[in-house]
């Protein structure tokens, strides 16, 4: 049968409060004095060891210097050099003797240290101590091109997951999804959700927009919390959900106010985008309508006299000739030239529309043809198309 050796416990200095004291003695004060005296003895003993170690190190250094000096003087031929060599060898011998003396004293100290009784201050020693703080590293400033490329790459890899997060409704579902996909907790996700909200509003999917807007504010609140704590957002999103689910009314109101403000900003941005798209569409349609002279037929039609507009509406050439004959020749020439440039009239033959002979000669000089037929698509029809 194996016996257990308990001798290792023979040199333990038991706790002060286990000793019996006289009733007339202030026990707490006695324990404090005992403990203080023991600590002072330990400090003095440790200081003695540090001084011995320091003296040993100095003796080693002195011996090394003496040995170096001896090596430099070896092989001396002159009497003076030989005398210096003998002196250096004597110093080396003395330094070696001192080193052995200090080594002996250090060994005695270490043996004495092992005999010291254990106590509450020396029984346990800290094996290691390590603290890890999840601090957000300082990122270097990125250029706009680098940010755009980073956003594009992130969205290409995670677009489906971001859209799924945007459609979640419950706090617990959002927290669990971010726990499983913590890489989504970043600025790129928030930016994509903002764009997604605007797209949905432009498409008039208002309910979906409001849902995604809620998740957008969730992500933005997480990022703001991380910024205030100076930690990585992936390490604090659980704190946000714990706070929002148990938040007081003031915090909840702040979240709701920010959500409503964000929705209004999305609606305003969507309106601007729609107006811009309409202007671009109208400009494209206008470019398609331009006649051979680069003039918009709709604008020309709207500036014509009422009598001429009636002629175009009824497609009556005779009526147009009568209207022109009644007008001032200069004014008639101006309007008819704009009709050609806009394509309302297609010049084909020299049909006299009632302009005076002098004006006709001027027209011949300018090589301006007269008009035979109306353009197939009248200005009135094009005006209606524009309004639609």
Automatic annotation (TrEMBL):
Residues 367-388 have a biased composition (Basic and acidic residues). Co-chaperone that binds to numerous kinases and promotes their interaction with the Hsp90 complex, resulting in stabilization and promotion of their activity. Residues 42-112 form a coiled coil. Residues 354-366 have a biased composition (Acidic residues). This is Hsp90 co-chaperone Cdc37. Residues 129-285 form the Cdc37 Hsp90 binding domain. Belongs to the CDC37 family. Keywords: Chaperone, Coiled coil, Cytoplasm. It comes from Clupea harengus. One of its GO terms (biological process) is protein folding. One of its GO terms (cellular component) is cytoplasm.
